[in-house]
Amino acid sequence: MSAFMVSDKTINRIVAGLERMSRNTPSPRDYPLYYAREAAGFDLEKYIKTPAALGQKIAEMNIRAIQARYPEKWEAMVIDTYQYKSLLSPSPMQLYKHIRCLLYQCSEGDVPNEIFFGVLNAITDQIAYWIVTESKEYEEAEWDAHE
Fold it and tell me: Is the pLDDT of residue 20 over 90?
């Protein structure tokens, strides 16, 4: 497996998507952040209130994975420091793919065992569930197949 530093734009889109998810729902029980927080005992909403800090936390997790994968040359691979920039939130599908990309790049060393990694992984499970259950194909599919 290999690892690379995801772009600031990807990190900032993840931050924007998570912030939108926390803001645009009628009840905390209706959004993936609630389920992820409950599953891992990690209050991601605290970070959402400070988007630059959330982005920095994501970048630092990515750097730890690169350090684990490339202990002798990781510094040359992490040239720039993370810069937060407010962006529009991506679609749920794009957010899902951005987080999956990040998690793949962070699947080195002990990083997959970190609580924050688990929270983001749980969020993608919930995003996928939401994408499927909101689709027309799901709505049209049979609930029970009677004979």
Answer: no
Q: What is the dihedral of CA 84, 80, 70, 68, to 10 degrees?
A: -30
Rg of the chain, C-alpha, whole Å: 17
Cβ atoms of 34 and 126 closer than 8 Å: no
CB atoms within 10 A of CB 115: 10
Domain boundaries, given as residue ranges, for the chain: 8-135
pLDDT of residue 141: 94
Give tens-digit pLDDT for 48-98.
778 999 999 999 999 999 999 888 877 766 767 899 999 999 999 999 999
pTM of the model: 0.85
In whole angstroms, what is the distance from residue 92 CA to residue 145 CA? 30
Q: Give Cα 117 to chain centroid, integer Å.
A: 8
Locate 134 and state its tokens.
């909101």
- How far, CA to CA in Å, does 33 sit from each of 10, 16, 80? 19, 13, 29
- Among candidates 102, 85, 97, 82, which has minimal Cα distance to 127? 97
Positive/negative CA dihedral, 38, 41, 46, 50 = negative
